[in-house]
Automatic annotation (TrEMBL), chain A:
<feature type="domain" description="Fibronectin type-III">
    <location>
        <begin position="472"/>
        <end position="565"/>
    </location>
</feature>
<dbReference type="GO" id="GO:0016529">
    <property type="term" value="C:sarcoplasmic reticulum"/>
</dbReference>
<keyword id="KW-0677">Repeat</keyword>
<dbReference type="GO" id="GO:0048471">
    <property type="term" value="C:perinuclear region of cytoplasm"/>
</dbReference>
<dbReference type="InterPro" id="IPR003879">
    <property type="entry name" value="Butyrophylin_SPRY"/>
</dbReference>
<dbReference type="GO" id="GO:0061630">
    <property type="term" value="F:ubiquitin protein ligase activity"/>
</dbReference>
<dbReference type="Pfam" id="PF00622">
    <property type="entry name" value="SPRY"/>
</dbReference>
<dbReference type="Pfam" id="PF13765">
    <property type="entry name" value="PRY"/>
</dbReference>
<protein>
    <recommendedName>
        <fullName>Fibronectin type III and SPRY domain-containing protein 2</fullName>
        <ecNumber>2.3.2.27</ecNumber>
    </recommendedName>
</protein>
<dbReference type="Pfam" id="PF00041">
    <property type="entry name" value="fn3"/>
</dbReference>
<dbReference type="InterPro" id="IPR003877">
    <property type="entry name" value="SPRY_dom"/>
</dbReference>
<dbReference type="InterPro" id="IPR013320">
    <property type="entry name" value="ConA-like_dom_sf"/>
</dbReference>
<dbReference type="GO" id="GO:0005634">
    <property type="term" value="C:nucleus"/>
</dbReference>
<comment type="subunit">
    <text>Interacts with CMYA5. In cardiac muscles, identified in a complex composed of FSD2, CMYA5 and RYR2.</text>
</comment>
<keyword id="KW-0539">Nucleus</keyword>
<keyword id="KW-0175">Coiled coil</keyword>
<dbReference type="InterPro" id="IPR006574">
    <property type="entry name" value="PRY"/>
</dbReference>
Length: 750, 249
């Protein structure tokens, strides 16, 4: 323990001055508790020693000790110091008033021993020092966390709660002080006032001194708490910065590392290449030299051989000598003539290698420059952001890279196999969006974007497909059919390629306020729509086409009036001898006729009776129309199912109901035909205008003389499907249809 | 003139009543039937006069024709007088079914002993309407007439002789000289009507006359129907509607 404490003390002493966090100087009061004064540490030592002494005192002081212990336990319990019992012990011991020992905290604190905390920190600091050389040691979030844990203080215990508690003196102690000398700031005994030392000094009762000391301490406790909070916040902030530093470091490290590695690799590569080249060169030289050496050796051998031969010759008889000598002389002559190459073929020096480090230099240079940006992310097309000729393309950059401009490229999407790529258009912009115009409607384009800065371009973003809105449809105004409750409109798409759907928009044409309200029918899959309307109004109708890019502009408008039922005669059903007028409401049978054998059978056209059908809107309810006829004309008017046999007369089957007029021998004959039967009806005044009422609800078909408001006849007919008005002309003449008119009153009775 | 109510029965929301009064034209007590539709409680209604055929009284039409529903729906007051003066004790009045009692023919007799009492034309066109107008919630400007058999003929001659009174003696001849306002005549004829088959009824002549004079008629020859009230009941609704079209316009 002693060693530890010594060490502790040693640390404390040396570092007491370094750390100002816990200096109480902030509050500038002389009365501040100086937690790290020399005296305190000394005292601690004394305390520890005292502790030991106490322990060694053993049973002798047992009673006193035990009493003390009880009080300590009380205190501990009172102030919740169970965890810090060691602390408590220390303090309790310190709390025992001793003469001459004046400066130590007279109350217990929950806070941890600051000295201990100091030590903790320092220790962790030590470990950090060791790791400083490496990467990522000091500065890890964990370390940071530990620190903060170390400094954590739980505010909430109001300063007021801390009571100044003074342990009553023990009998066997020295006499207690009972007054307080302000001048000396020390408790003294009353009689001491009388003595020289404190004679001139100001003295107040001990209790007063206690109170004021308590107050001071309370006040400063509060300030201390505040400081703690501040410091904690600051510590939080620091932690965040910590982490950011770490992150930024990480980025920089990565960047540098990759550059650095590149450089190293390049250098290594260069080294290898150069060494290899040198090696080759060496080999060359050595081989050349060796070659020379070999030649030299051979030459030497030959010389030596010749020399020996000559020597031998010299020992020969004169005759032999002369013989050989001539031969030898030849030989020698030849031999010596041959030049000996004594030039060294390979120089020992190697050329100075000029190392080309330009690329390395460049690489090193580029470390300092900003990198090229990372690839932007192109956004998918925002709904309804396109027009027929333009789209608004947006993208984002998910990094902090510097970007000077963006380059957006696009081309129409090829649906055929990639053979020849269509050239792409490019636009340069500074923002992260661009409205691209001059595009073709209802077409898909692929877009991609790159970010640019001084260092160069980023990699390309993904290719996104954007689509232009379609062209507006074209309403087939001549085929509009309506009645009092609905209208059936059809239109041409207006686009070569399919669109996703159509929208029909209606506004009421009459009142200006009502015209602001637009009703829309959306999601129409085909090029026709049956829309419910209010009777007796006028509407303007528009159609739009819709695709993923958005809606087209409105089509040209069409007007609809919900008065009566409106239809036109259907060209597709028209017998070849009939001609329909431009407005689709009159039909004429001329004198000329195509020979009957030329008429081919048809499902839609009448071939036998010279008839035509009208296109009535397929809506149940009432429909009323009028037909203008000539008194002398043989005609048939009525209704028929769409699939009525076109090879028969109207009224000859059970798929049609009609009124037939025949004028013969100056007599008017009227028949009301269905399934070839007619009631026996005489009509005295031939109608010039026939009103026809089709009543789906009551399953009735009625005919009227419009001019006389006279009811002629009513069929009861089972109308399980929709029927169409039908008209036939048995001899040349003309029928004119009037529709889109309200039912006259007399008709309402039927 | 005092009216004595003989009976009253609620029917289709309205009231079928029978009254008796002393007729000035006919010099005897006469009964007639009146149907008041529900609408008559609150407002004046048009009046539709029904003239019955030979042998009928005021009871036949109101019991057998089933007209009440249509009359109630269209809001028409329907008046059905008797077909001749009764109890006049004229010699020979009961001798034949088609002359005398129950056979007033809706004409005013010009000969004795008939001319004192048999003035059905005047009764039907003058006295009765005045009586009705005075005692019942009817609109005097809106009046129409229809009938069956003898009554049909009666209706025609009343209308034809009083242009503008109704919205016709021998109807055919009357038609030929009719110069009145627009008429709209609806005639139903049972094809199996014995009288037709016997040639007593000559609709073709009438039609021809109307055609020539351009008097609008729709004449319907109804297959399988006879002269009876079954025939009447079948088509009464069409006829009431025909009248309502003009009376309620």
């Amino acid at each position: 323990v002693e060693e530890e404490s010594g060490q502790e003390l040693g640390l404390d002493r040396s570092t007491a001055k370094d750390f100002h966090f816990y200096h109480m100087d902030l509050h500038d009061s002389e009365d501040r508790l100086q937690l790290f004064p020399e005296e305190n540490t000394r005292m601690r030592k004394e305390v520890v020693q005292a502790e030991m002494a106490n322990e060694s005192r053993g049973a002798g002081d047992g009673k006193a000790q035990r009493d003390l212990q009880e009080e300590v336990d009380e205190l501990v319990h009172l102030y919740g110091l169970e965890d810090d019992h060691e602390l408590g012990d220390e303090f309790v011991d310190e709390n025992m008033p001793r003469t001459g020992v004046s400066e130590y905290p007279p109350y217990v604190m929950k806070r941890r021993d600051p000295a201990r905390e100091q030590r903790d920190w320092r220790l962790s600091g030590e470990t950090v020092e060791a790791e400083d050389l490496g990467f990522g040691g000091w500065g890890s979030a964990g370390q940071c966390q530990d620190l903060r844990e170390a400094y954590r203080y739980t505010p909430g215990r109001a300063s007021e709660e801390y009571e100044c508690y003074v342990i009553p003196e023990e009998e066997d102690e020295e006499e207690a002080a009972d007054v307080f000398c302000v001048t000396c700031k020390t408790p003294i005994r009353a009689f001491q006032k009388v003595f020289d030392e404190h004679k001139e000094h100001e003295v107040i009762p001990l209790n007063e001194a206690l109170e004021s000391a308590k107050d001071e301490i309370h006040k400063n406790m509060y300030k201390l708490e505040k400081q703690i909070i501040e410091m904690e916040n600051f510590a939080n902030h620091l932690e965040e910065v910590f982490i950011t530093v770490e992150e930024n470091f990480g980025k920089q490290e990565q960047n540098f590392e990759s550059h650095y590695n590149e450089i190293l690799e390049t250098l290594a590569q260069k080294y290898e290449e150069k060494i290899q080249a040198l090696g080759e060169k060496k080999k060359e030289k050595l081989e050349a030299l060796y070659g020379q050496l070999v030649n030299c050796g051979e030459n030497l051998d030959t010389c030596k051989e010749l020399m020996e031969t000559i020597e031998e010759m010299c020992h020969e008889e004169k005759v032999d000598f002369i013989k050989d000598a001539v031969a030898m002389a030849d030989r020698l002559g030849k031999f010596l003539k041959a030049k000996t190459d004594v030039e060294i073929s390979a120089q020992p020096e190697f050329e100075d290698q000029t190392l080309d480090f330009s690329d390395v230099e460049q690489l090193m240079g580029s470390i300092n420059t900003i990198p090229a940006p990372s690839a932007p992310v192109i956004n998918p097309q925002a709904p309804n952001s396109a027009t027929g000729s333009s789209v608004r393309v947006c993208w984002s950059l998910y990094s902090d890279d510097t970007v000077e401009s963006y380059q957006l490229s696009y081309r129409p999407v090829q649906d055929s196999s990639p053979g020849k790529d269509q050239a792409a258009f490019t636009v340069t912009v500074k923002e992260t969006y661009c409205s691209v115009t001059n595009l073709v409607p209802n077409t898909q384009y692929e877009f991609w974007v790159t970010a640019h800065n001084r260092a160069g371009p980023s990699p390309s973003s993904e290719h996104a497909v954007y689509m232009t809105a379609p062209s507006p449809p074209i309403i087939k105004t001549k085929e509009i059919r309506s009645c009092e409750e609905a209208v059936l409109i059809c239109w041409e798409s207006g686009n070569l390629n399919p669109v996703d759907s159509y929208t029909v928009e209606l506004t009421q044409a009459e009142s200006p306020e009502a015209s602001d309200v637009t009703e829309s029918v959306v999601g129409i899959p085909t090029c026709e729509s049956l829309v419910q309307l209010q009777p007796g109004r006028s509407y303007i109708i528009y159609v739009r086409a819709l695709n993923t890019g958005g809606p087209s502009v409105r089509s040209e408008p069409a007007a609809v009036h919900t008065i009566g039922s409106y239809f036109r005669l259907n060209k597709d059903t028209c017998h070849p001898w009939l001609i329909i007028s431009e407005d689709g409401l009159s039909v004429v049978r001329s004198e000329r006729r195509i020979p009957a054998r030329d008429l081919s059978s048809s499902d839609t056209r009448f071939t036998r009776c010279v008839a035509v059908m009208g296109n009535l809107i397929p809506v149940r309810g009432h429909h009323y129309w009028e037909v203008e006829v000539d008194e002398h004309l043989d005609y048939t008017v009525g209704v028929a199912f769409e699939d009525v046999t076109k090879q028969e007369d109207l009224g000859a089957n059970c798929l049609s109901w009609c009124m037939r007029h025949t004028f013969a021998s100056s007599r008017h004959k009227y028949e009301f035909l269905h399934n070839r039967t007619t009631p026996d009806i005489r009509i005295t005044v031939p109608p010039k205008k026939i009103g026809i009422l089709l009543d789906y609800e009551n399953s009735k078909l009625s005919f009227f003389n419009v001019d006389l408001s006279q009811h002629l006849y009513t069929f009861s007919c089972q109308l399980h499907e929709f029927v169409h008005p039908c008209f036939s002309l048995e001899n040349p003449g003309c029928l004119k249809v009037h529709n889109g008119i309200s039912m006259p009153k007399h008709v309402t009775f039927y | 003139m005092a009216l004595k109510q003989i009976s009253s029965n609620k029917c289709f929301g309205g009231l079928q009543k029978v009254f008796e009064h002393d007729s000035v034209e006919l010099n005897c007590k006469m009964k007639f039937a009146v149907y008041l539709p529900p609408k008559a409680e609150t407002e004046k209604c048009p009046a539709l006069y029904w003239l019955s055929g030979l042998t009928c009284t005021e009871q036949n039409f109101i019991s057998k024709s089933g007209y009440h529903q249509a009359a109630s729906e269209h809001g028409l007051v329907v008046i059905a007088p008797d077909t001749s003066p009764r109890g006049c004790n004229i010699k020979g009045e009961d001798e034949s079914w088609d002359f005398g009692t129950g056979a007033g023919f809706y004409v005013d007799a010009t000969e004795d002993p008939w001319k004192t009492n048999y003035r059905m034309y005047s009764y039907v066109t003058e006295e009765l309407p005045q009586l009705i107008n005075a005692n019942f919630p009817v609109d005097p400007q809106r009046m129409s007439v229809f009938g069956h058999s003898m009554g049909g003929h009666g209706a025609l001659i009343c209308a034809l002789k009083n242009p503008g009174k109704y919205k016709a003696y021998d109807a055919t001849n009357l038609v030929k000289s009719y110069r009145g306002s627009q008429l709209d005549i609806l005639i139903d004829q049972g094809k199996d009507d014995q009288f037709l088959l016997d040639g007593q009824l000559l609709p073709d002549d009438f039609i021809a006359a109307c055609t020539e004079k351009k008097i609008p008629v729709v004449f319907r020859l109804q297959e399988g129907y006879d002269h009876s009230y079954y025939f009447i009941a079948t088509f009464i609704t069409d006829h009431i509607r025909h009248h309502a079209k003009y009376l309620n316009a």
